[in-house]
Amino acid sequence: LFSAVEMAPRDPILGLNEAFNADTRADKVNLGVGVYYNEQGRIPLLRAVAEAERARIEAHAPRGYLPIEGIAAYDQAVQKLLFGANSELLAQGRVVTTQAVGGTGALKTGADFLKRLLPNAVVAISDPSWENHRALFESAGFPVQNYRYYDAATNGVNRAGLLEDLKALPARSIVVLHACCHNPTGVDLELDDWKAVLEVLREREHVPFLDIAYQGFGAGIDEDAFAVRLFAESGLQFFVSSSFSKSFSLYGERVGALSVVTSSKEEAGRVLSQVKRVIRTNYSNPPTHGATVVASVLNSPELRAMWEEELGEMRSRIHSMRLAMVEQLAAQGAKRDFSFVARQRGMFSYSGLTAEQVERLRSEFGIYAVSTGRICVAALNNSNLEGITRAITQVI
Ligand code: LMR
């Protein structure tokens, strides 16, 4: 049965964790996976999360099955976070939200549902994009293409290329867009870019799939939902995958959601029934713990305020590490202008390091980064920064 099974390549991101864990060097640093570490180099357990967990444990809540679509209080809280508490769409009952197994689970549920709706569609992702986007949509049966996005010459967006490529896609393609904190580049679209993209999507009848895994890590909770809200006002039907892995520091709990914007309440009911079928035949119904915690925090004014403060602390610590990194690289005499790092948003910096330079960082210094040159700036702290910037300066 298995004699012809070939060895699959290691996952470009999570595979790095495996290599990192096996590395015995004491001063090793993991800048590979997108995880926020605090100034002490640890993944924080947020105070708001700890409070909500304590209340849950004290309540000795039974662990029955959840509804297929997840916890209602969670799904509603997700909707308000994404679309805004006063959203017209929500008032009209046009948005279907189901709890998902992380942002990845949301993408896959959405992809499987789309495969039934548009079996011959092409999926387009940014060049570059999160490593798993291509694999995930391909595994749902779609051919996946790139649209131009990052311009290495300016460390910005290739605006003309982006619009040209979106126009050139077959009509009714599925277009995956990073709503904020673009992974891996940290380079986001500006207001006018989003408007221009929206018009092309409308003209070509493309189906937008907004992926928002870093809400609150860019400029703020509402600010980072800008694109979702712009699309909500546009009258288009679209998909949103969202995640609390980073914003709640709940990586291993797999807390995400899929939202589908439909054109009427009646349509939403039918769409929900089909999304539920996809979920039921994949993993039946979602797990309880993480989503219960998130719902408790978002629905309690005190815990919510505590969470927003903690999220703000994470956001500003990342920003200060960006500034410190630029400064340190210059101080170390790096023969390259790294000022763009300070302008990038979210957890990542597309550093411009080549695969060979990344490999040298790993083998000579025990510093792990993605081979594309993506580094997780949320893993920098005042203790490891000097060593990391010195190593980068040496390999370039
Ligand atoms: C990342 O890009 O590092 C994160 O989104 C984690 C993952 O699942 O790849």
TrEMBL record:
GO terms for molecular function: identical protein binding; L-tyrosine-2-oxoglutarate transaminase activity; pyridoxal phosphate binding. InterPro entries: Aminotransferase_I/II_large, Asp_trans, NHTrfase_class1_PyrdxlP-BS, PyrdxlP-dep_Trfase, PyrdxlP-dep_Trfase_major, PyrdxlP-dep_Trfase_small. One of its GO terms (cellular component) is cytosol. Pfam families: Aminotran_1_2 (PF00155). GO terms for biological process: L-phenylalanine biosynthetic process from chorismate via phenylpyruvate. Its EC number is 2.6.1.-. PROSITE patterns: AA_TRANSFER_CLASS_1 (PS00105). Keywords: Aminotransferase, Pyridoxal phosphate, Transferase. Residues 27-392 form the Aminotransferase class I/classII large domain. CDD domains: AAT_like. Its cofactor is pyridoxal 5'-phosphate. Transmembrane segments: none annotated. Homodimer. PANTHER family: AROMATIC-AMINO-ACID AMINOTRANSFERASE, ASPARTATE AMINOTRANSFERASE. Belongs to the class-I pyridoxal-phosphate-dependent aminotransferase family. This is Aminotransferase. The lineage of its organism: Bacteria, Pseudomonadati, Pseudomonadota, Gammaproteobacteria, Pseudomonadales. The gene is tyrB.
